[in-house]
Design brief:
CATH class of the largest domain: Mainly Beta
Strand order of the largest sheet: 16-22-23-27-13-12-11-10-28
Strand content: 15-25%
Distance between the termini: 51 Å
Radius of gyration: 26 Å
Number of helices: 17
CATH architecture of the largest domain: Distorted Sandwich
Number of domains: 2
Structural class: alpha+beta
Shape: globular
Helix content: 25-40%
């Protein structure tokens, strides 16, 4: 360790094996009009614990596009990084992938403090599909892994009042229309990373908000988790709802100390319910060698969480699926998280013209005597860990640093190290055209990006440009402030399409249909036909929806993106029209580059029609984009096995035979994405 090393920020690269993110799904995916989720409760909850539960946790995606075109093909690649370091720690961030903290390395102990994934492998776990494990992820805006987790963000270099360099990760979030900034500090002499978050709602209306810092740390056989309270809300998998209890024993796994995550036989989680009187809550993980990793925050980030994959075949399989189990750097991992609300299914309302700010410290220490805490009653062990965390991060230090960081919030970035998207710049231009400004402390510069060119033209000329109907629109926009501009624009098929998208997104179905029909009158496009099909599908008019997809196929045929066919085939499955599905697959799609969703729909038809040779191929292929916990493939596999067993025995398939097969056979590992095996 270089004791003379000074605090500094610089850019670099890491070279690892990684998959290509691939293209985006071009279709506008509309929100779930059931905005709130229903939540079941195992026992009695307080009024505070039920407040806003399920609020605005329904699926929402626009104006973003799904990132669902990646594969599992890995190649050596160089990934751009921004590095913040001092004499004790080196923090490496991925600006092209949501600003994630990839690595927090202790120079003092020559030890990685986080779970650092040895590969970049995407999987279907985020709001927009693509997600990867490891490091510290900043989740905001909406329930789930965040919109921008696999998207570029802005990173700038600044200096504090003492001359220490720090970085600001920031952007404009278009779904909830707020600004955010994450300031990361490693002043000279600091043995912990200090992160200050600023979320800005400068609009004149309350907006739903969400924040969970997601920290991936190594999981070892005897690793033990502690929090600043023993009061938790836990997930009961059998009941499929929430319960309250006290660590270390919870009814979800009876008579088992669940402060040891390896004691969970399935993927599970619990949320630490720190009291409102606790000003500086914390969480930690203790390892067999006495090493402790911790996170401590100001009171705003009151709630903490532990998630583990569980000690079972499915959980281990998912960890291997997300990483490279053959790598010498591979390790099982779990997540420590910190959030604004009691659980991730609790909503949070951010008032108009307000800011949310908080500070987090991340670090570690090692004391050999801590090894005995693995065999100590949880409350007594927790008290010892609490004393050590207070010693490492005294409350007065966290409080004073938070106040210092607050004073830096509006400091203008001095040097942009990495450019994110152009959406922040576009919003700045829109506001300036109406005499408004963006919040201080942010800096957006114009970039040559196709995605905003049409919207810039609308601002500059008052007209939204018309494009070829077979080309993919440059972007989607459902922000309310753009609609008057579109409505004043000379109408063409594309501006009418965007207006219809806005109305459908906010639940105005009839207005949306009217706009999409107008778009068709102006110039028939597959986009308007598809959107009308979605409206019919959502109204349970399957026949009408199918007819509209078929009209698009008849007119535009092979020019259609696979995403059109994926939706159409899924609708044929819902209509149980397997013959037509198989015909379309064989005549139009089988010679294309394989699409997972197309092949999956074809597998459902093949099962019903007896095309078992096709199924045999499906069961051996590798799927990249199957959703966490999705059971479609294993359901097809079990039913196929039941059919084969019935043929062998000369009997009909019935539920008894299905149950026998389910308990006597195991699906191939490559198609088994279950979280729980029932």
């Amino acid at each position: 360790m270089d004791k003379q090393a000074q605090n500094n920020v610089h850019t670099s690269t890491i070279s690892i094996k990684g998959a290509e993110l691939g293209g985006e799904n071009p279709l506008p995916i509309f929100r779930n009009q059931k905005r709130d989720r229903s939540v079941k409760f195992l026992n009695e909850f307080s009024a505070e614990q039920t407040h806003l539960v399920g609020y605005e946790t329904g699926e929402i995606y626009l104006p973003h596009r799904w990132q669902d075109r990646y594969t599992r093909e890995l190649a050596q690649k160089d990934i751009e990084t921004v590095v913040l370091e001092n004499e004790y720690l080196r923090a490496t961030f991925l600006p092209g992938l949501g600003g994630r903290l990839y690595s927090l390395f202790s120079k003092e102990n020559e030890q990685e403090l986080l779970f650092t994934n040895p590969i970049l492998q995407f999987a279907n776990l985020s709001i927009l599909n693509a997600w990867f494990s490891g490091g510290i992820e900043w989740n905001m805006g909406q329930y789930g892994h965040t919109f921008g987790t696999c998207a570029p963000v802005h990173v700038a270099k600044l200096n504090d009042e003492a001359g220490n360099e720090f970085i600001r990760i920031y952007d404009y979030e278009r779904t909830r229309n707020f600004y955010w900034a994450i300031d990361c500090h490693l002043p000279t002499g600091a043995k912990n990373l200090r992160v200050h978050v600023r979320i800005i709602n400068d609009r004149s209306e309350t907006t739903p908000m969400y924040w969970w810092t997601n920290i991936a740390v190594r999981e070892t056989p005897k690793a033990r988790v502690f929090g600043s309270t023993d009061e938790v809300i836990f997930v009961d998998q059998g009941f499929a709802g929430y319960g309250t209890g006290k660590l270390p024993y919870l009814p979800t796994v009876t008579d088992t100390d669940l402060s040891f995550p390896q004691n969970f036989p399935f993927a599970n989680e619990y949320f630490f319910q720190n009291p409102i009187s606790m000003n500086f809550p914390w969480e930690s993980i203790l390892y067999e060698d006495g090493h402790v990793f911790y996170e401590r925050s100001t009171a705003t980030l009151r709630y903490k969480k532990m998630f583990c994959w569980g000690n079972h075949v499915g959980g281990r399989g998912w960890q291997e699926f997300l990483s490279d189990s053959s790598s010498p750097n591979f390790s099982p991992y779990l997540e420590l998280q910190a959030g604004l609300a009691p659980t991730q299914l609790h909503g949070y309302q951010m008032p108009a013209n307000s800011e949310i700010t908080f500070t987090q410290f991340f670090g570690s220490f090692e004391k050999s005597e801590n090894q005995q805490l693995l065999n100590t009653e949880w409350s007594a062990a927790q008290a010892h860990v609490a004393e050590q965390i207070e010693e490492a991060i005294p409350q007065n230090l966290l409080e004073s640093e938070n106040l210092r960081f607050e004073r830096l919030n509006t400091k203008r970035p001095e040097e942009i190290l990495f450019h994110g998207s152009n959406w922040g710049f576009l919003e700045e231009q829109r506001r300036e055209s109406s005499g408004n400004q963006i919040p201080a402390g942010l800096r957006f510069e114009p970039l040559e990006k196709l995605q905003i060119i049409d919207w810039i033209e609308l601002l500059d000329t008052g007209t939204y440009p018309e494009r070829d109907v077979t080309s993919t629109p440059t972007s989607w926009m459902v922000q309310r402030e753009w609609m008057p501009l579109l409505e004043k624009s000379t109408q063409n098929w594309l501006s009418a399409l965007h207006i219809g998208n806005y109305h459908y997104e906010i639940g105005e179905r009839e207005k949306a249909i009217e706009s999409w029909k107008k778009s068709l009158q102006l110039n028939p496009s597959p986009w308007a036909l598809r959107n009308l099909a979605i409206a019919e599908r959502d109204a349970e008019n399957l026949s009408s929806a199918l007819s509209l997809y078929e009209e698009a196929i008849d007119i535009f045929g092979t020019k259609l993106h696979d995403a059109f066919y994926e939706e159409y085939l899924q609708l044929l499955v819902k209509a149980e029209n397997y013959e037509e599905l198989w015909r379309i697959y064989e005549e139009l799609l089988s010679t294309r580059v394989p699409s997972e969703r197309i092949d999956l729909a074809a597998a459902k038809a093949a099962l019903q029609l007896g095309h078992f040779e096709f199924l045999a191929k499906i069961f051996t292929r590798t799927f990249a984009q199957i959703r966490e916990g999705e059971t479609t493939l294993v359901a097809i596999w079990f039913e196929h096995q039941a059919i084969l067993e019935a043929q062998r025995l000369g009997v009909a398939v019935d539920d008894q035979l299905r149950e026998k097969v389910r308990h006597s056979t195991r699906p191939p590992k490559n198609i088994d994405f279950r979280m729980i095996e029932l």
